[in-house]
Design goal:
This protein has 550 residues and is an all-alpha fold. The protein has 15 helices and two strands. The chain has a two-stranded antiparallel sheet. The longest helix has 98 residues.
Length: 550
Amino acid sequence: MTVPLYARYVFFAIGLFLVVIDGISVVGTLIVPRPAGGRLMVWVDRGVHALFEMVTRPIADFRRRDRTRATEAAVLLICQLLVWLGVAYLGFTFMLYPFVRGGFTEALDTAGPALWFIGDSSVHGWGERLIQYAAAFFGLVTVTLQIAYLPTLYSAFNRRETDIALLNARAGVPSWGPELLARTHYALGSGQSTIGTLPDLYEQWERWAADIAESHTTYPPLVRFRSPRPLSSWVTALLSVLDSAAMYLAVSPEAAPTVPARLCLRSGFQCFGDIARTLGVLVPEDPDASMGISLTYDDFLKGIAHMRKVDFPIERNAEEAWPDFLGWRVNYEQAAYAVARAVDAVPAMWSGPRRHPVEQIPPIRPGPGRPGGYHPSKRRLAKGRSSRNRRSEEHSPPDHPAEEHTPKDHPGKDPHSQDHPAKDHPAKDRPGQDHLGKGHPAKYYLSTDYPAKDHAAKDHADKDHAAKDQADKDHAAKEHAAKDQAGNDQAGNDQAGHDHAAKDHLATGDTANDDVLTDRATREHESQGHTSTDNSAADNSAADNAASDH
């Protein structure tokens, strides 16, 4: 059948239009940093989502349904690439149709090798060759940009999930606003409230909400990326933080961090609104408080009762706090419920209805108790807990007693010349490395009934026991130090006695020397006296002889 010439040019115009629309979608989705991908990717997203809705409709269990929906984002990305290349292939085929003689089949064979890099074709005219080069360039750029698009998506996804994982220890799994306030005040049963960390938490989630609003509206497939764990979701996480800020401002307006909490609320409901409008859900930008909220007053009372279990500081009663809480929640409830329904988020408490009739899941709270294994203050294993520490202690050597050093141990030395303190070898306490038996994980979360007072009493008793042990150790150390000091004093006294005896000995020797010298002088003096007497006698006898001669 011969096709008129004007009809061929109509096909060329249609093909050019398809290629332009496809190029705008590729550039707007992968390059432009704002939601400018056009309607093509919106249709693809809705088609893939409708397919998964149909597949998961018969599945009643949420965990199985979540496992099936976990592949929705990957399927969406693959379908995006296939749609871009398919529309381009069809468009270039229509553009080649006026230039080939074999009809539409030859046009397909000519455009295919250029776009898919498979097969071979020969063209003769400059128009055919130019279209074929354009098809090859378009296919190469599309595949390259899609590959470079994936690291950006997964970087934003990892950033999002890191803060959600940190929040799970505070707000529970699934997250809930009153649970966040209760656990923060309870502080894992430590007896020291960490409610002072809430301003920093609200500042962190203010930035987090702004980041999510920017990334999830610029790259809509991120909305379909689900958290690694089935009971965790970015929608319920942000909703729990906003609920905690609204409740804190409502029940304790004096103690609440007003500015960080309000900024977090503002950033949060802007995030929900922007993402809801990106998904095609019409939500008002400025909700009217007279419309009310879906959350009932009884649900609000249950949240306050949950906070009272841990003695959360509440300044106002429920009747006075309810209007303020309603005024805050009306700003984000409609948008948050719409997003949670669209992505089929985990049915956490206060998170709204779903397409599937399921009951809301409360936060998982392990039972009361301490971690199994070695108890550092009591120096024994906890009862009822199997652990490898028991076997290690059975085979470990006994504690070494204090070694007392006597003079016999160091012959030839003064026993007081050097102190020899006792060398204690107590068992090494390693509370941070408790080995837990299989099936008994460490439970640091809150119990169902939040036995804060019981834990506080136990901790107080443990602290008293530890203080008593420390006092005994200090007393023993003081006695040991007193004994050492007494020994040192005795050594000093002995040394002083030795010095005094030496001085007496020296004094006695000096006295004896003086006596010897005195005796020697006396003898010399007597000998001189005798000599002078003899000389006098000799002189007298000589004088007498001279007189007789005369």
